[in-house]
Amino acid sequence: MEKGVGKKVQIAFSSLGTEVSIQMVLAGKEKLEQSGRYFQNIENIYAKAMVIFSRFDPKSELSALNANLGQTMPCSPWMIEAAKNSIEYNRKTNGLFDPRIIAALENAGYKQDFKSTDFSKVTAPVADPQALKKNTLLEDDLVFGDQSIMLKNRMDFAGIVKGFVTDEVAKYLRSEGVEDFLVDSGGDIFVSGDDDHGDLWNIGVEGIAEEKIILHLSDASVATSGISRRKWEVGGKRMHHIINPLAPEKFAFDLKSVTAVSASVQDADVWAKVLFLMGLKERKEFAEKNKLKCIFLGYSGAAWVSSAIKENILK
Fold it and tell me: Reduced to 3 states, what is the DSSP secondary structure of residue 173?
């Protein structure tokens, strides 16, 4: 497609507990006429994910698994893939990613959908270190069969679901021959090709106090993990949704957010969360050693930028 000749079409809706925005740059009458079908199929992908992964819906596939511990349950391909991905991320992050944090989240008062929870009325105790069982490997609590899973411990795969679904939407659009698009699932973003000006996509990093940082990207993923919105107090103790599986009773407040860039949204999402949980010195050394593309934003608005991501910052 020639640069600058496409027309931008877009849609926004709510799903997965966040706001979703889709932009496509389409060239030619035929593609533009198909945009409504593309958008409807994309909304169906998000709706499908809710039915599978929501821990707040008692009829979801995840709820059925959590309600039947020790029993082999038939599962959808998406659930099996997400569960297997979780084991791989658990290994890569030395346990800092772990879907068994569900008990710690509930113990901290996050038992219902965040938007519908009045945390001023939460009477849950301060997060209990025993709320997360750490005496078994994650793969020991996840037993896979032929299109089935048996859980031995309750789980919540929300830590990768937004990234997983965003990647699925990107796969769908490419299967339809759409080359230029942006998928934004509440800050979990995939960009492909060019924008409607025929240039790389510009993604702003929120909260920077001084000169705004703009990421200049194509065929890449961005995810931001932070505590600006999902934080609360119980019994005078500050808490948030980014639980440290290795120390669930402790809540880090030394950073406002971490933004990560990677090939897939799942990867970016996981690394943003894991880097947030590391200590200040450790996360910087880890990012540089592993050549991770990331930005750490402090409460003052000052940002630390890794060496690897500098090539993606708009000058």
Answer: helix
